[in-house]
Write a structure and sequence with these properties.
Largest sheet: 7 strands, mixed
Radius of gyration: 13 Å
Structural class: mainly beta
Number of helices: 1
Strand content: over 45%
Shape: globular
Distance between the termini: 40 Å
Helix content: under 10%
Length: 118
C-alpha cells in the first residue's frame, strides 16, 4: 500500500524559500506511469494543483509555480520536493502531496500546514 508523508517547516518568513518534501513508501516514484503531485489549499479556498513530477523525472507546473518554483526528486530516498521562492502571506496553505494517475489523485499525504508570516 502506497503512503505519502509531507515534511517541512510550518512557518516561513515572507521573501524566503519554502521547501517541502514528500516521502513515499510502499511503492517507487519511478514506477510507470504515475505522476507525483503537489496540491495546496489556502484557508477558505479550494484545492490548487501546483505541479507534478513524472515517473520519468519530467516536470509539469501550474503557471503560478512555474514562475517561482520547481519540483525535483531523489530516487535513492524515494522522495520528491517542492521549492517555492519568494513566498508571501498568500502562500499560506495546507500543502499536500499525492499520486496521480489518469487525472485521479490517490493516495494523498495527510497534509502539512505552512504559514507565511514575519
Amino acid at each position: 500500500q502506497v503512503q505519502l508523508q509531507e515534511s517541512g517547516p510550518g512557518l516561513v518568513k515572507p521573501s524566503q524559500t519554502l521547501s517541502l518534501t514528500c516521502t513515499v513508501s510502499g511503492g517507487s516514484i519511478t514506477t510507470n506511469y504515475y505522476y507525483w503531485s503537489w496540491i495546496r489549499q489556502p484557508p477558505g479556498k479550494g484545492l490548487e494543483w501546483m505541479g507534478a513530477i513524472r515517473f520519468s523525472g519530467s516536470t509539469y507546473y501550474s503557471p503560478s509555480l512555474k514562475s517561482r518554483g520547481s519540483i525535483s526528486r531523489d530516487t535513492s530516498k524515494n522522495q520528491f520536493t517542492l521549492q517555492l521562492n519568494s513566498v508571501t502571506p498568500e502562500d499560506t496553505a495546507i500543502y499536500y502531496c499525492a499520486r496521480e494517475y489518469g487525472y485521479s489523485w490517490s493516495p494523498w499525504g495527510q497534509g502539512t500546514q505552512v504559514t507565511v508570516s514575519s
